[in-house]
Amino acid sequence: MKRFIKSLSANDVGSTGAHMAGILVPKSDGELLAFLPQLDPKQLNPSAWIDCVAPDGTELRLRFVYYNNRHHTPGGTRNEYRITHLTGFLRDAGAKEGELFEISREEGSSTYQIRVINDHLENAISVDTEGPVRIKLTSGWARMH
């Protein structure tokens, strides 16, 4: 199973009051982009629906979109990947800034699992090794092995 986590920002959970267009997926993270549905950058704002299951069994559809009008529209400014339609899920999960959003998928499956880890990273990972394990994730995404 592949798992990716993101430390949620204040903007991600809506505590800034700003309008959000979903969680940012960095263009530089090829492994994360390969994990998500393929999008055709030759199209204006291509998108794909992601079928997901929450921990309580609720089925959700998230939208993975590449806002790319910078490359298609004169005066366009956007050039970013986002996962949208998360607001209700994050609110219902009681997500707070600094907590973790996780998305995972079994190899060969088309359905993703999502959850909010209502704890900070240090307390959310169990590792079977000797000595301390330090992982720092102040923002952005990380692949969990």
TrEMBL record:
One of its GO terms (molecular function) is endonuclease activity. InterPro entries: DNA-bd_pseudobarrel_sf (IPR015300), Rest_endonuc_II_EcoRII_N (IPR023372). The keyword Cytoplasm does not apply. The keyword Hydrolase applies. Residues 3-88 form the Restriction endonuclease type II EcoRII N-terminal domain. Keywords: Endonuclease, Hydrolase, Nuclease. This is Restriction endonuclease.
